[in-house]
């Protein structure tokens, strides 16, 4: 997080508040995107990202939440550092299913654990749409689950940034590939993250809509979707969004299955990659849905959620 459909793999492993469903209910046209984005969520606590063996033989375990230092609560790495001024420290840690335990550290030992702790969740995904009327966006098509905490994290603030693809690790049967990317444009924020819901992340778009060369298009209703040819918008090189050919092979309720038929995409990526979650699916000039999953043993095959279902943001 994680799968919505059996035998499928979530594409973003992070790689995330409920907005009123009425915010999108009246949207008639959306701008299909496809840009790769970096996502950062600021958490209201500090946790251990890797197992750490301390000099006294005790362990800080992956997923431990550091709740206190010398009896004083901490909610961020910055506040944690403020307590690292005394020589003898007692940190209190807790995991969800365990009791709180105290660990004694020297000042030097405490500073040595800083590279192994975090107070944010981050990752890479794909921007799905922008609503030109409400100036809100949707991305990913599924919820962000923190890879260490194994749950959707609570967060106090969130941001999205434009990411540039530097390298591709191709997907192979049984071995999903992924995008290697970096944040572009001096970390200029494109928008905030207001909601991390079952069907994606949503928030306010803060950048200039004129920067997008694509125009708003109509949403295709479920009964209009047909088996056969369609397109997938995504970025696999730099920040350039390209259209790639796919075939929709199954329509079931509000979900689709498709096969990548584009020879260039298959040659460069092997099919669907981690990081493609949220890539728009277009058919006959209308907005169909967003990529959400891949078949692990057949990476040329993927799944998508319809835009209409994604806009609900939670099952009814």
Q: How does this structure look, described?
A:
It is a single chain. The protein is mostly beta strands and 316 residues long. It has 2 domains: 8-42 and 120-310, Thrombin, subunit H (Beta Barrel); 55-112, Pdz3 Domain (Roll). Helix content is 9%, strand content 47%. The chain contains 5 helices and 23 strands. The protein has helices at 22-25, 77-82, 107-112, 263-269, 307-310, and strands spanning 8-10, 29-32, 36-48, 52-53, 59-60, 65-69, 72-73, 88-94, 101-106, 117-131, 136-139, 157-169, 178-183, 189-192, 195-197, 200-204, 217-218, 228-237, 240-252, 255-260, 280-283, 286-295, 298-306. The strands form 3 sheets. Strands 2, 3, 6, 7, 8, 9, 10, 11, 12, 13, 14, 15, 16 and 17 form a 14-stranded antiparallel β-sheet that branches. Strands 18-19-20-23-22-21 form a 6-stranded antiparallel β-barrel. β19 (240-252) and β20 (255-260) form a beta hairpin. It starts with 7 loop residues before the first strand and ends in a 6-residue tail after the last helix. The model is unreliable at 1-26 (pLDDT under 50).
How do the strands and helices of this protein lay out in sequence?
Elements: E1 8-10, H1 22-25, E2 29-32, E3 36-48, E4 52-53, E5 59-60, E6 65-69, E7 72-73, H2 77-82, E8 88-94, E9 101-106, H3 107-112, E10 117-131, E11 136-139, E12 157-169, E13 178-183, E14 189-192, E15 195-197, E16 200-204, E17 217-218, E18 228-237, E19 240-252, E20 255-260, H4 263-269, E21 280-283, E22 286-295, E23 298-306, H5 307-310
Antiparallel strand pairs: 1-22, 2-10, 2-17, 3-6, 3-10, 3-12, 4-5, 6-7, 6-8, 8-9, 10-11, 11-16, 12-13, 12-14, 15-16, 18-19, 18-21, 19-20, 20-23, 21-22, 22-23
